Amino acid sequence: MREAYYINPAEPDRLVTQADVERIVSEQSRREQLYSLAVFNIPNLAELMEKGGDQPILELYNKLLDTIGAGLSGMGGAVPVPTSEDWKENEMVSATGGIVRACQLNGGFVLYVNYLAAKKGFSTGQTKFEPNPLLLGERNTDFCPIFYERHSVYLAFLQMCMEFFCQAMAAGVPLRGCISTGMAVMDQEHSLFFGSPLVEATVGAATRQSMGVSFGRSFYNYHPVYHDYFIPWPVHLDGNSGGGAYLSPMVLNWARYWRGSLGYGEIAFTEGLTKMRENPLYAEQYDVATRFFAFSEKHEDWHRDLEWTGQGDILDYCEQAKKWYYSVKK
Questions:
Q1: In the 3-class helix/strand/coil scheme, how is the chain assigned residue by residue?
Q2: Per the confidence metrics, is the pTM higher than 0.70?
Q3: What is the model's pLDDT at position 278?
Q4: Which of 131, 164, 167, 264 is the least crowded, having the fewest Cβ atoms under 10 Å away?
Q5: What is the pLDDT of residues 103-117, one digit of tens each?
């Protein structure tokens, strides 16, 4: 089995083993640093536990740990890495990413990664062209440049989030989730977790009106450069008086991942999730997922239809994306 080598955060030109980086990351975890994290929870959790005990939660958490331990399947694992200054030309690099952790908090699941270390991947021999890479930021707001220097860490993390979400769907358990990025302390050894991205993701996930994975408001500064990973779906903001301030109009495009993955792509989505469809707790959630899946499939190249002229920052971009959504939704 190929051993994973990482870029040493202390000496960027030197590679070290995963064990060495694990030690370094653990030592640094008590300090505030940049993290991307995702919070997932299960709708109707109390009723689910009343009927089936805590077994579904334990099984799902084990799936999450397996996802981290085993890596990604299918299309997962290969991410675009820019080879041109404008980020349009890319090579696909496999087996890249960072050190990912998971924990279980308040009945929910937290998946997170920091940017101390990046796994040294290898080229797949394939290229990707992105005509409109997204490199806009919000005016007058600071962000950490290492996020884009190691953007492959973020993209691999998003793929892992999609893999976990799809695993839950295939098991008949819907999830509500939210992804955020920012400065935080995530010290698992001492059970110390705090920071604005954790608040954003926790509130954002809890206030979603239906299953799916939102991007929090930190999307405006920390977003995927490439459009394969997200799609506008602002329905979760409609009537959301409590969490709207924590959410962006963008959601994780897990349906695209499902279609492209060797693990799920051959499964007919509407036929495969019989557990969810037949469970009265989740029948409505299944209907929402089905509508999203069809929308994602119909608009796979949605960003090509945006009006790109006159955009000054990410807020202009998101407004154009919302206009596009409301113009095409049926």
A1: CCCCEEECCCCCCCEEEHHHHHHHHHHHCCCCEEEEEEEEECCCHHHHHHHHCCHHHHHHHHHHHHHHHHCCCCCCCEEEEECCCCCCEEEEEECCECCEEEEEECCEEEEEEECCCCECCEEEEEEEECCCCCCCCCCCCCCCCHHHHCHHHHHHHHHHHHHHHHHHHHCCCCCEEEEEEEEEEEECCCCEEEEHHHHHHHHHHHCCCCCEEEEEHHHHCCCCCCHHHEEECHHHHCCCCCCHHHEEEEEECHHHHHHHCCCCCCCCHHHHCHHHHHCCCCHHHHHHHHHHHHHHHHCCCHHHHCCCCCCCCHHHHHHHHHHHHHHHCC
A2: yes
A3: 76
A4: 131
A5: 877 667 899 999 988
> What is the per-residue pLDDT across 193-210, written as a single tens digit (0 to 9) for each?
889 999 999 999 988 878
In the chain, the domains with their CATH numbers are 27-328 (3.30.70.1230)
